[in-house]
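Q: Here's a chain of 209 amino acids. Please give me its 3D structure as tokens.
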Amino acid sequence: MRILVSGASGRVGHLLVDNLAAAGHEVIAGTRHLDDKFNSDKVELANIDLLVDEEQLVTELTDLKLDAVYFVAGSRGKNVLQVDAFGAVKLENAAEKVGIKRFIMLSAWQATNPKAWGEELRDYYIARFFADNWLMDHTTLNYTILQPGNLLEEAGSGKVQFNPKTATANSIENVADVLAGILNAENTYGKLLPMGDGETDIATAIAKL
């Protein structure tokens, strides 16, 4: 498959690009950091700027001839409206207009449930709420929305759980592995997937969904 990873230079995005390339896919690393380095010659860097208008994204996605799109971008609190919210919506709309059916979104724990939010990172959660709900309610894409809890920079266990009752920690490596693992998992289409580190290996946990 030929896949765009938007946000490829981020903590999750970089690992995801390497995972997809290692699995034999052609990966377009969407990033403004065109000097970034990845571990495979199957990776092509592309300046995918989420601040441009939707029509330009349509043109760029058309030229790339993609089979699937990942949104794992984030402004890390610096521009949540333009990137985390509206940037995601524009990319969703552009993918649909181009005819790319598979769209995988990296979101955040309970982003679609405002009653669960505290005051910390509230603007970020509002942005994620907007982007997630637009994907579910205003597109016909074969989407999966992954909602991990707190991300930790530690080695992945390769074991996770879906739909935990409370927020749990997530190694960044596990999140990237799950994102790669659900690419062709049709049982995840149209689903919202809260996740955390757990006791079940990733392939088995995905298969049981």
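Q: Can you summarize the key feature?
A: The helical segments are 11-22, 54-64, 80-98, 122-138, 172-181, 202-207.
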